[in-house]
Amino acid sequence: MAEFIRIDSNPVPPGGEAFDFRGADGGRLRAAAFPPDAAAGRAPKGCIVLLGGRSEFIEKYFEVVRDLQTRGFAVATFDWRGQGLSERLLPVREKGHILDFGVYRADLRLFTEEIARKRFGGPYVLLTHSMGGTPALQLLADGYDAFAAAVLCAPMTRLFRNPFKRAFAGALARAACGLGAARQPVLAVKEHSLQFEGNALTSDRARHDRFRLLQEAAPNAIIREPTYGWLKAASEAMADLHRPDRFARLKTPVLIVSAERDALVDSTDHPVLAARSPLIEHALIKGALHEILMERDEFRRAFWAAFDAFVEPRIVPAGGRLAAEA
Fold first, then answer.
1. What is the distance between the alpha carbons of residues 22 and 57, in angstroms, rounded to a whole number?
2. What count of other Cβ atoms lies within 10 Å of the Cβ of residue 63?
3. What is the pTM of this model?
4. Is the pLDDT assigned to residue 319 strictly greater than 50?
């Protein structure tokens, strides 16, 4: 039976339920569902499908869930394959491993169809962070149209700003996998979630400490270094997003939100991708580090202002009546 990881400083949002479901290939994935906050006094607006990044898990986003609930949204989310409290792909739990981001994409589509859409009324909006944005944007670019809008927060469309470093990382991953080392960890990857000083994730100490305490409370939810298999799969997925005419089948309005001081993904790539489709818009949160949703309040307010301005017009039909109210 699935449960939440509980610490005093991170209460479970109202009505939250944790449960397991079977992914696209039968693997066990942990999920959670949260109804709108009735105490907020707002009419239901629909459902947010919320996707975290690499090494994260559901509980890290409890504050974000509450932000969405008070806006009138239900929230459906899950731990990606191989991380959090979902089934792991290797005997060593701390390794972040995948061989094909198509697995993530298939799990996302199944979760949307079989969990989110069956539990909550629409319209449906996709909200992702970092790695979660990669398979999400691939799925949308395939022409998947279940979402009225998508907001991708600091999406992992490129890992390194330096093209030589990017090319070297891809070549190294291909070589390592070719030599049978796909399950071996990539060396010298800095872990930013354990120490606040010098971290590249957030400038908010309290939010940084909260995730550290969550990891201490549930060591079995942690992953650390990615494997060479993960790096190869990630490189291939990001390259896929840069193929000519990749967004020709895109039907969903997308907002890419970049962090100005992002040191983990190449935020300069975001406006380049946005220029490739009239359906993609771009916003920049000045001064923010990579984890915009875990940043200081001033940066989070800027994000939510961009989110509201983009999403609200796209979930209310011309007649002004929400599908969730029908």
1. 17
2. 16
3. 0.95
4. no
